[in-house]
Specification:
Two copies of one chain form a homodimer. By secondary structure, the first copy, chain A, is mainly alpha-helical. Helix content of chain A is 71%, strand content 0%. Chain A has a single domain, classed as Tetracycline Repressor, domain 2, CATH 1.10.357.10. Chain A contains nine helices and no strands. At the A-B interface, helix 6, helix 7, helix 8 and helix 9 of A face helix 6, helix 7, helix 8 and helix 9 of B. Chain B binds a DNA duplex (30 and 30 nucleotides) through helix 3.
DNA sequence: TGGGTGTTGTAGCGGTTGCTACATTCGAGC
DNA sequence: GCTCGAATGTAGCAACCGCTACAACACCCA
């Protein structure tokens, strides 16, 4: 109430939020604490709590920023040559920088919000909507018929999120990497088949 | 070296591990700390660190236990009447107690291990293997041909994990729940189609 | 009966956490 | 020039963290 939570999105606050987001991308969200973060971005915990109402306010701001960036990155994807290519291109983009970082933060936030803890659960719910819309737009632009885009988006979203959750496993297990590419291929084929069928199923 | 990390899996250690697992299922893994955990299960942090080498040892034990229970639960599923039903039954089982709790802990552990932090990353890698095998067994028993079980398992595993990550969103968004059931249906249809095709794709 | 050995309680260490009280600096408007 | 408010530094609070030193039990074996 006393400190400006959002009223004046002062330049300094915005700048700190950007830097904090970069730091979270590099070091993760789960263990985040104010003093190391402040040290890393060249300020003090005191100043973070001056520009943000509390840690939750800062975290929520960072999460929204990361989501904005990832939605922008998704929107900037060139349209693919068809539904199958759209899935392959999407996975290629999401599994490498910079989008990978953003989605990883989303996964961390989801895990933190699994039991309903705020601000994680709330911001994840917000983010999901815009993310979902951007994903659907990409699929539509790439040839998925409008009336099926929603179904395809749900399938792709779930699959991709699940793959990302186990992404680190591929670093030590070649078999896991192979299975992953097979899943992407099967998913692409499914979306393509769905898009070509006159009626769903 | 001094304290028994694993040599004598004393009854007391085992009992504490079971109780700690129950507590983690109810209160989450991410914020876990020794003193509240000890208080909740009727012992002291001192005793936890007597029976377990350190917090990491305890966490690893809990994660393995949770994974064992979830694999057992998966193995106990009655065989379904076909590949499509197998997916529906699987989702029904995973999205409700007790399996839901175990998978939720797995998701938390994956998030904690996203940046390679131990013991999370290591145990998640272990768990993934046995979990994957159990999932494949269920699909095979339910009519997915052997030579396609691996592909189907990868697809189902990724999808289901992704759906579970966003499960809480359904509690405040009816539209999200609808999309979820659609995804499960599409996934079931995909697995069924995959199982009936003479050659994949 | 005495001495281990395995288990537990008490107390505390050094460090970190989010957050705040207080004092200071600085720059813009009267 | 002076004041006033926004921005920043210093210091510290109370709580918590993982972990450990030390002492006290209880029990079995000699």
């Amino acid at each position: 109430m006393s400190r400006p939570a959002s009223p004046p999105p002062s330049d300094r606050r915005q700048e700190l939020a950007e830097q904090a987001t970069d730091h979270v991308l590099a070091h993760g969200l789960i263990g985040l604490s104010l003093r190391p973060l402040a040290r890393a971005i060249g300020t003090s915990d005191r100043m973070l709590l001056y520009h943000f109402a509390d840690k939750g306010d800062l975290v929520a701001t960072v999460l929204r920023l990361a989501n904005d960036r990832s939605v922008d990155g998704l929107a900037a994807l060139p349209r693919s040559s068809g539904p199958s290519a759209a899935v392959h291109d999407l996975w290629a983009a999401l599994s490498s920088s910079p989008l990978l970082g953003y989605v990883r933060v989303y996964v961390e936030a989801s895990a933190l919000g699994l039991l309903g803890e705020e601000p994680y659960a709330g911001v994840v719910a917000e983010s999901n909507r815009s993310w979902y819309a951007a994903l659907a737009a990409h699929l539509r632009e790439s040839g998925v018929p409008d009336h099926l885009a929603d179904r395809a988006t749900g399938l792709v979203d779930a699959c991709v999120l699940g793959l990302l959750l186990d992404l680190p496993l591929g670093e030590r297990d070649a078999g896991h990497r192979e299975r992953r590419t097979a899943v992407v291929a099967d998913l692409a084929a499914t979306v393509a088949a769905l898009s070509e069928a006159p009626s769903g199923d």
